Amino acid sequence: MRIQLDSQPYASIQADALVTYVFDGDNRLDGLLADIDRSQTGGLAALVTSGELTGKALELVLLHYPQGLEAKRLLLVGAGKREKFAVGDLRKIAGTAARYLKSRGVKKMVFLTREGERGADAAQAVTEGLLVAEFESDKYRSEKKNKAIESVSLAGFDNGQGDALNSAIERGRVIAESQNFARDLINEPSNRLTPRMLAARAEAMAKEVGLGVEILDDRKITELKMGALLAVAQGSVEPPRVIVLRYEPLTPRPGAPVLGLVGKGVTFDTGGISIKPADNMEKMKYDMGGAATMIGAMRALAFLKPSISVIAVMPATENMPGGRAQKPGDVQVAMSGKTIEVINTDAEGRMVLADGVTYAKKLGVTHIIDAATLTGAIQVALANVHVGAFGTPREYLDQFLESAKSAGEKMWPMPMDEEFQEMIKSNIADIRNTGSGKGGGASTGAWFIKEFAEETPWIHLDIAATCWVDEGRPWLAKGPTGVAIRSIVDFAMKL
Description:
This protein is α/β, with parallel strands linked by helices. It is 36% helix and 21% strand. The protein has helices at residues 31-39, 43-50, 89-102, 120-134, 162-187, 195-209, 218-223, 227-233, 289-304, 349-362, 377-382, 394-407, 418-422, 441-453, 485-494; strands at 2-5, 17-24, 60-64, 73-81, 108-112, 151-155, 212-216, 241-247, 258-263, 265-269, 309-319, 331-333, 339-341, 367-372, 387-392, 411-413, 431-432, 458-462, 468-469, 479-480. The strands form four sheets. Strands 7, 8, 9, 10, 11, 14, 15, 16 and 18 form a nine-stranded mixed β-sheet that branches. It has a six-stranded mixed β-sheet with strand order 1-6-5-2-4-3. α9 (289-304) packs across α15.
């Protein structure tokens, strides 16, 4: 999709559709909408009066061959209440418009911003919304459902900000395309994305964008004594891999932090000996969503070039119930030397992250963010609305949550009380891989990872409920979401 600024008067731009937005309860058609209404000889005002055009969030009203416009269609998208509106809402508005129009064969569209939303942040948000909406999960269908929109003109912006706006469009493109790159990985069936295949995909991307890359094979993993990862992997005929991606700034700042990104890469999770129910098990191809998130974030950072070093570590394996698989009651020794009593082999994600976090620290990171489709408990707590965010110290977590807010991603701080730490103490080993009490599964899972992060500033993102949507949204295809990439990129750029 080509996205470019257009300095022509919006009414004279030839396109298949022109898109703008209307606020809920805003009966005053002023400014831009007043101009459009006059060209329609009061047609918009009549729609407002009749109740057909209300401005409720993501409501759509389509007019064909509108008077006074060169565009063949006029699409009005509801923006919700004006007092609750933020520039980031333009992502959903632009994405909703793009998905609606591409299903109707539109090839060229114009997105017209209104007064007050004409700066660089708006241009970036619109670009991200358009490109994220472009992704479809029908990769292996012979007949594609929707055709793509070929070009979008951004109109209504201040021509005097041309350089800043073009930079914002490019920044939005990089982030959205990296999000879609991660979504494509998450969408892959496990027979087409084994640990070795995931490593190969990451390595090819890294070489393309100029990241450093190292792939640790099972021999090297054994040498490093990554016993927690190897324990999960031993039930599968597919060997594990650890993917390491590195970004180095051209002029490193002395004493600057080194950010570590650690992602869970379980390319298929049967649950192991503690096998999952058959219903919906096919979705467990998405259990490498944390690794894909970090790979996507690293792709974006390679282009955006933060002033700090970033190292990403993604342990990748399958979790299978083979004859060599670990069993409930086994004791494993992690890379750190800490011993783990395995209570449930389906609590495997925290085990691979344990060795991932330890190895990231060995490589010299000073701050850590991990992402994982870790627990079903996070869905009980937050449904599929918020990412569960854990972290210590709290100031570090709050700093990250500010980035999430800036990026327009909903995250909620979750408790890390010491009572949850008590729940993972084992009678025969240092820790157990599930909590001993009822409930609190998301927090005990986080505390398990914290045991390996120790005093390093650390954030854990439980994306189990938000990494995948079973039903499409108006602005987003069903399937993988790429959640948390925008927040991680924003945080790295500010750190």
